[in-house]
Amino acid sequence: MINRDAIIDWLEAIAHTYDENQQVLTDLDSPIGDADHGANMARGFNKVAQKIPSYAERSIGEILNDVGLTLMSTIGGSSGPLYGVFFLNASKIAFGKDTLSAHLITTMFESGLMGIVKLGKASPEDKTMVDALSPAVEALKAAVAENKTLSDSLLCAVTAAEAGMKATIPMQARKGRASYLGERSIGHQDPGATSITLLIKAAYNSWHETN
């Protein structure tokens, strides 16, 4: 079961991984975007990290809701609203819960995906974060349905996300700034698919000892 402290651990891990991978995300964004995805993600989650002391007495739902609002106000471009709605939708699943089961974690991620799809109007193979998040959610659902531990289920999600992320390389972008490049967007890994994969990996790294 995931409690408030585990959620905070995850948020700290996300902030750390975006700091650590800021240049990687920038390098991926440079050929097909504004070269600011790394800085934007690091800035947004550094702001979240600064607020963590205030989360000590707040519920999981309240924390995730605040994270969503914080990201919307601090991450530039389309990523702010997309990551913001992911956490806002997740917070609705978590409200009123002191702990989260593997099933609820799965529902949170699925609700977050639905929010991103609705807001961004993206479909699989559009070369977006959906190409990593959608297969990750499906893998997570399947693993939890088979009564695998949360750790094993998250590992399945990470594996699926990484495969989806790499699958964006030969795709032609159909959404966002990258779509303006047409065929020139082919051959580049999508930065959004990469950053959401890092977020999922942070969940596994934070919770892998949880059953």
Q: Your description of this structure?
A:
This protein has 211 residues and is mainly α. It has one domain: Serine Threonine Protein Phosphatase 5, Tetratricopeptide repeat. Helix content is 67%, strand content 0%. The protein contains nine helices and no strands. The longest helix has 19 residues. It is globular. The relative contact order is 0.15. The mean pLDDT is 94.
Ordered list of secondary-structure elements with their pairings:
Elements: H1 4-20, H2 22-29, H3 37-51, H4 60-74, H5 79-94, H6 102-120, H7 130-145, H8 150-167, H9 191-207
Helix pairs in contact: 1-3, 1-9, 2-3, 2-9, 3-4, 4-5, 5-6, 6-7, 7-8, 7-9, 8-9
How many separate domains make up the residues?
1
Q: Helix and strand succession?
A: HHHHHHHHH
Compute the average pLDDT: 94
Broad structural category: mainly alpha
Residue fraction in strands: under 5%
* Oligomer designation: single chain
Q: How large is the count of helical segments?
A: 9
What name does CATH use for the topology?
Serine Threonine Protein Phosphatase 5, Tetratricopeptide repeat
Could you say what the CATH architecture is?
Alpha Horseshoe
Radius of gyration (Å): 16 Å
CATH class: Mainly Alpha
Global morphology = globular
User: How many strands, what sense, and barrel or not for the largest sheet?
Assistant: none
Instruction: Estimate percent helicity.
Output: 55-70%
Distance between the termini: 7 Å
Low-confidence stretches: none
CATH superfamily membership: DhaL domain
